[in-house]
Amino acid sequence: MAIPKHKVFISYHHANDQGYKESLIEWNKSNGYDIFIDASVDTGDIDDSLSDDSIRQKIRDEYLRDSSATILLVGTETKNRKHVDWEVYSSMFDGQVNKKSGVLVIQLPSTGCTTYTAAHGDEEKEALYSDNTSWVSVTTRADYEERYPYMPQRIIDNLLKSDAKVSVTNWDRVTSSPDKLKLLIDLTYQDRAACNYDLSTPMRRANS
After folding, report:
1. For the chain, which end, N or C, has fewer CB atoms within 10 Å of the first or last residue's CB respectively?
2. Which of 84, 63, 59, 65 is nearest to 155 (CA)?
3. What is the pTM of this model?
4. Cα gap 36→110, rounded to integer Å
């Protein structure tokens, strides 16, 4: 059965990683791959003097309303950007009008990270990581922070929850094959309703 396309919102650090976002969009269009529908909208004009609830509602109901999966591109400074945190928080929030999205993390080459987390079971492991014959369970924040030194705190919060279903992969791994990225987006989409996200960390109010 053919894997359906899904509407995807792409969250990233605009100043540093715009080129990767544009490459992903171009790659999606090229050679007839047609992997996903880009539903990204720039949230950079949101007034940061608004309350957390107002920011979350505005992003969830206005900017993310046409998407059901969010791809977070992680570079070396992504974790310090308030708009990225707002977008991830709002993606995970189960609103009355627009429901929560699935979240997929792609680490960019600038991070130098080659580790990954497969949250969607054997289908994901077999399709993307058939070369891995030994899986290790990670259960502590310190271990995740060592493996993923550039990862936003909110993502680590949810990597620690087995029912949050957030997968982490690498740019080279998914851009090597359109089928791999399309499957991973679809698995992220399929598991979104069952995700029990941790939203306990307050929304970031400033860049650092």
Report:
1. N
2. 84
3. 0.97
4. 24
